[in-house]
Design brief:
The chain has 15 helices and 9 strands. By secondary structure, it is α/β, with parallel strands linked by helices. The chain has one domain: D-Maltodextrin-Binding Protein, domain 2. Helix 2 links the parallel strand 1 and strand 2. Helix 2 runs antiparallel to helix 12. Bound molecules: pantoate (PAF). Pantoate binds next to strand 3.
Length: 325
């Protein structure tokens, strides 16, 4: 009799302790990106969230601030360093101002194709590069990409380097790109992304350059007449976190975040692969004049003349190693 009372008491205690334990708090990840949710960056964010949900159900919730809602990529990286933003998906164009070594991947006509670029980033060179970020108070967990960048403008059909001379083209705040554009005779106009669409609308610049994934997701066909498939430079993207956020996680949570970042990068690349084909068709259907027969070799020949500048900035050894891979 006594024993059964004791068991009942134990059971009551157990049940009430379960009921009174507060539910595990969901941790919010404040994540920023510059473009629309319906994009390769958006695909990455969805994959990140799904992967975390699967690994640690109910533990994390991603608060996704798209369309530069938290500022341009430069401000976002500063927020990551300060810990006011937890995470971001962004391009290397701005990141190289914080981790200069990363700019080596932004050299025009460096990579042959997407497979070449991805094998470098997933290999020793790319993985070593990720390890440089913590020295600048940024945690970089995975390489995604945007595809190759192409030129859009409102003035001319671009086939050869002569066609771009004198065009006022927005560039990212990226000295590696700017050097090449200036050498081609372009009036390179560095500008943060949130200012680009108004500038295109108002005609203060003639054009800009970005991959198909960006041109489609940001509906640049509404403000740009011509697209030339120049493919002049590969555009790597990063999934980064603030050390304040990352270091506050347990080892298991960090491992889940690392795996989720790789899943995000994979989803981003898949989105890019798909849209590189379908995007050109949809831009043509939307009325954009697309020039496919660009003399890429002529552009490459001119840009290769300034490779010695890049050898000085980085090293010929690493550039040759990337090309040879
Ligand atoms: O052109 C840029 O600044 C970048 O490619 C963009 C569109 C912000 C995406 O990272």
């Amino acid at each position: 009799m006594k024993k059964s009372w004791f068991n009942k008491l134990l059971l009551c205690g157990f049940i009430s302790s379960i009921c009174m334990t507060p539910a595990l708090a969901e941790r919010s990840i404040k994540l920023a990106n510059a473009i629309a949710k319906d994009s390769h960056y958006g695909a990455a964010v969805t994959a990140l969230e799904e992967s975390l949900q699967q690994a640690l159900p109910g533990k994390f919730k991603v608060e996704h601030f798209a369309n530069s809602a938290l500022g341009g990529e430069r401000e976002v990286i500063e927020g990551i360093q300060l810990g006011t933003i937890d995470a971001a998906v962004l391009s290397t164009s701005t990141a190289l101002n914080f981790v200069p070594e990363v700019g080596v991947f932004d050299i025009p006509f460096l990579f042959r194709d997407l497979a070449h670029a991805r094998s470098v980033l997933d290999g020793e060179i790319g993985q070593d590069m990720l390890k440089k970020f913590p020295q600048r108070n940024i945690i970089a967990l995975a390489w995604g990409d945007q595809g190759f960048r192409h030129l859009t403008n409102n003035k001319v059909v671009v086939k050869t380097p002569d066609d771009v001379k004198g065009l006022k083209i927005r560039t990212t705040e990226n000295p590696v790109h700017i050097a090449a554009f200036k050498h081609l005779g372009i009036l390179a106009t560095p500008m943060a992304w949130p200012e680009v669409q108004p500038a295109l609308q108002q005609g203060t610049i003639d054009g800009q350059e970005n991959p198909i994934a960006v041109i489609v997701s940001m509906k640049l066909n509404q403000v740009q007449k011509h697209l030339a498939l120049t493919g002049h430079v590969y555009s790597p993207a990063l999934i980064i976190f603030s050390p304040a956020f990352y270091n506050s996680l347990s080892q298991d949570e960090q491992a889940a975040l690392q795996a989720a970042s790789l899943d995000a990068a994979k989803a981003m690349r898949k989105y890019v692969d798909d849209i590189e084909q379908s995007g050109i068709t949809s831009l043509k259907e939307a009325g954009m004049i697309v020039t496919e027969d660009v003399d890429k070799q002529a552009f490459a020949k001119i840009v290769k003349a300034i490779y010695p500048e890049y050898y000085q900035r980085y090293s010929q050894e690493i550039i040759d190693k990337i090309i040879a891979q």
